[in-house]
Amino acid sequence: QDEMTNKPEAVIERLPVSCFCLQQENAFRRACLVLSNEDSTKYGGGCKGKLGPYFGHFILVCILMSTVCLAIYTPYTGEDSKMTGMLDLIDIILNTAFTIELFAKLVAQSWKPFIKQGWNKLDLFIVSTSDVDMILTYALAGSDVPLSSLRIFRVFRIFRALRPLRIIARARGVRLLVGTLLSAVKPVSVTLAIAVGILFVLGIFFVQFLGGRMKGCSDPNLFTKPECVGLDGDGNPLSWGAPDVQFDNIWNAWIAMFILSSQDDWPSHMWAAVDGTGPLTGAKQGANSILAPIFFILALMGTSAIVINMFVGVFVDCYYGAMADVDADKSDTTKPLSSNILRSIFEDPVEGPRAAIFGVVTETNFDILIAFFIVTNVLAMATESFQPSDGQLVFDAWANFFFTFIFGFECAFKMYALTPGRYFVSAWNKFDFFIVSVSFIGVVIDNAAGAIDIDPSILRILRIFRIFRILRAFRIFKSLKDLQNIVMALGASASQVLNLGMLLMLLFFIFGVLAVNIGGGMCVEGDDSPPADLLEKHPLMGVRCAITSESGRLERHGHFQGVGVALLTLWRIATSDAWGDIMNAVSLVPSQRALSFELQESYITATGLTVASLSPDTMLDGRIAGQGWKDDHLTSMAIAVKALQEFNATTVTDDNGELWLQLASIALPDCLAEDEANFLSNEGLLDCSNPGQGFSAGTKMCPGTCGFNLAGLFYSQMVAKIYFLLFVCISQFVLLQLVIAVLMDQLSNAGNADVAKQVTKAPGCEVLTEAVLTRVYRRFHFNARRKLLLQKRIAIQADRAAKKNP
Questions:
Q1: Residues contacting 353, CB < 8 A, separation 6+
Q2: For residue 6, what pLDDT band results from cuts at 50, 70 and 90?
Q3: pLDDT digit string, tens, across residues 787-797
Q4: Suppose 129 and one of 159, 280, 574, 672 were both cysteines; which one would form an S-S bond, judging by CB atoms 3.0 to 4.6 Å apart?
Q5: Is residue 566 over pLDDT 90?
Q6: CB proximity list for 371: less than 8 A, separation 6 or greater
Q7: For position 97, what pLDDT does the model report?
């Protein structure tokens, strides 16, 4: 025991043995402890103590660099391009750094303490999958391994999208936010189960009412199912089916209810149900014009207005409850008061012109007059337009002069009356001074441009100061207290909103990278033909998408061929802008490869021969048969190869070329699977190279054109459905709603701040409130300053008297 304090000595806890043999005193383990240390004051605070934090900063830079590399990657970068070589080299360096960091942590902490922490589990999973991907990629490079076997290992590459999650572990604010959100999941699970159950019950009801009734032919001119057979006028096979949002089974009905709950294009789905007639007949206008609208409106009210808002409200309430438990500062009664409420009191002028001006600028009528000029200035700026008339230009110039000098006089008078020290205490006065200064600079530049010969490029740069004139409109906040409360609420919630914003950006980025990896190969409108300048050298560039069905091509402004456009598409989804259509489009799976009547008829029309005359086993020296395709799938691939060979032999402008492409699309309906596209690309029947001399130019094996899938190993609509349901729930129903809730909570607190101050007790006091303590402090501070000034004046007068009468 310590004899001085009569307390037991602190026992230094020994770390457990690491790797079954490394004790705490082992030199290698001590090195790992130093490398994984995050406290710069440890080990005496020297170089040894700072090595760990510096290494942590280096790892953070590596994480950010990895994030940039993920953003650069696209599925169409040439495999032998400079970009691919650079990304591969950086990937090796980053994987090595992450592995060293993980190994150092594991050795320093030993296995059990290491694996108990959730963030360490995440790091272990991400680093392990990245290492497996890197090792297998270079171990199998150049080896004669079947493509189907390589796709198994490409699944590991998908997990690289999770690398940015490691940023959370190193950003304390975001880490606490994630922990708070996860702690709120368990209490809200009951409400989530109720919401899912209500959607399930409504789905059962709609299956009973609309199941099988929303059918139709791909040709709207055909009304019954028996008529919907054969080929249409363009030579495409006719098909009979339901729209994307339909109620034929409970799973599709539940998805439809979820789409309706987000209010995504619900009128279109309602009118589709209104026109539904039956399983064997197509749409007829107004067939269910009474019951269908009533059911849809009731379902929309029950799901969107009640169920979803109930879930969001409960989650927000649980979030604030968890935040109250995490935030220890709220229960700290010894925390000192904020310096913002202990402001200084300045002495007002009592005589002379300064006192007269002070009396004017502090009057309420003066503030009303300035508010009038602010509103008038906003109205004057609203008269500007594109290609203004001469009268507009003259009015704008004179209005700018007038309001600039009005606000300039206001600023000068206030600064003279209050003194600069007192004037710049207010943040609003600082804002006013900035606007007035910029406005005068803009006036000087505008007038100097006409009198002095200035280079036009420099003049355009200098005229950027005119843009700041729009900031005058924000001065209206100064005149209205309610608007000030809104601004103060935004400022007070900046830290929470920033953390939520960072988490939301991280979520968007991860889902964007994931979408590029599992669905970046999908075709986009316009990809079915090469650009005009590449048509001669690369005539096969658009073939991959030309033989993909039109419904399998995403719109130009909503696809996942790159991280940038994927983020824009995800923002559309988060704001409920037709996200159901995008989800159904990326749910495209390859249809069954069968020798249908339409396929056989098209083959006879194109070749004049029957399908039986084909010999798939001998085509391409048996390479088709060696891919493992069987029966009808093998024959369909043989027909597609035959059609593409004939197309390659013709000119692009020949009419027969379109006929062969149509035959290939019928043989491989809807979309190309990954193995089919890879095979046709290797045989030279498809061209997906990145032409030119750019950094990304090079040859590229064609990817499949189907929807979201796991490296071509697993095709199911469930992949896209799960992806979109998770993203919509987390982004739209949780994080975006939390941002709004935080802002509303801060706004409510700002409105009640004065009332709360009257009842909130000062730290360590049972009776004294913050409001009373603030007034006491400010009055004491004011009297103390006056006493010091008085003593200073008396001393000066005494010094002067002593000099006059030595």
A1: none
A2: very low
A3: 777 777 788 77
A4: 159
A5: yes
A6: 476, 479
A7: 92
Helix (H, G, I), strand (E, B) or coil at 381: helix
Task: Report the SS3 class of residue 57.
Answer: helix
CB 762 within 8 A of CB 773: yes
Residues 230-284 pLDDT 10s: 887 777 788 888 888 889 899 889 998 888 888 888 888 888 888 888 888 888 8
Distance CA(689)–CA(231), nearest Å, equals 34
Distance CA 560, CA 724 (A): 13
Q: Is the pLDDT of residue 340 over 60?
A: no
In the block, which residue shows the tokens 């609420």?
A: 489
Lowest mean pLDDT among 337-341, 606-610, 635-639, 658-662: 337-341
Q: Pick the closest to residue 478 from 443, 435, 438 (CA basis).
A: 435
Q: Return the closest-CA partner of residue 702 out of 728, 683, 725.
A: 683
Query: What percentage of the chain exceeds 90 in pLDDT?
Result: 8
Distance CA 308, CA 321 (A): 20
**pLDDT (average), residues 290-317:** 82
- pLDDT-derived band at 654, boundaries 50, 70, 90: low
Is the pLDDT assigned to residue 298 strictly greater than 70?
yes
Q: Is the pLDDT of residue 15 over 80?
A: no
If DSSP codes are grouped into helix, strand and coil, which group holds residue 371?
Answer: helix
Sign of the dihedral defined by the CA atoms of residues 737, 738, 740, 745, in that order: positive
Task: Count how many Cα atoms sit within 13 Å of the Cα of residue 529 in the half-sphere of its side chain.
Answer: 10
Q: Which two tokens stand for residue 500?
A: 């939520």
Rounded Cα gap, residues 169 and 383, in angstroms: 52
Q: Write the DSSP symbol of residue 769.
A: B
pTM value is: 0.79
Distance of alpha carbon 392 from alpha carbon 686, whole angstroms: 60
Are the C-beta atoms of 690 and 697 separated by less than 8 Å? yes
Written as six digits, the tokens of 621 are 């020296």
For residue 110, give Cα distances in angstroms to 13, 69, 102, 462, 491.
14, 32, 11, 62, 44
Round to the nearest angstrom and report the end-to-end CA distance of the chain: 72
Distance CA 772, CA 762 (A): 9
C-alpha distances in Å from residue 492, one per residue of 485, 486, 498, 747: 10, 10, 11, 9
- Which are the contacts of 738, defined by CB distance < 8 A and separation ≥ 6? 315, 316, 319, 500
Q: Which two tokens stand for residue 179?
A: 């922990």
d(CA 416, CA 426): 15
Q: What is the C-alpha separation between 217 and 224, in angstroms, rounded?
A: 8
Find how far residue 432's CA is from the centre of its chain. 35
Output the DSSP codes for 146-183: -HHHHHHHHHHHHGGGGGGGHHHHH-HHHHHHHHHHHH
Q: Is it the case that residue 569 has pLDDT exceeding 90?
A: yes
Q: Give the span between the Cα atoms of 409 and 402, in whole angstroms.
A: 11
477 vs 691, more confident: 691
Instruction: Give dist(CA 642, CA 664) in Å, integer.
Output: 8
116 contacts 159 by C-beta, under 8 angstroms: no
Q: Which two tokens stand for residue 412?
A: 């000068």
Question: Of 346, 347, 345, 342, whose CA–CA distance to 773 is shortest?
Answer: 342
Can you tell me the distance from the alpha carbon of 678 to that of 363, in angstroms, rounded to the nearest whole number?
79
CB 499 within 8 A of CB 469: no
Q: DSSP code of 698?
A: B
State pLDDT tens for residues 465-487: 566 666 666 666 665 666 666 66
Determine the angle formed by the axes of helices 736-751 and 309-326, rounding to 10 degrees: 70
CA 251 to chain centre: 28
Strands 216-217 and 240-241: antiparallel
3-state class (DSSP) for residue 497: helix
Q: Are 66 and 94 in contact (CB under 8 A)?
A: yes
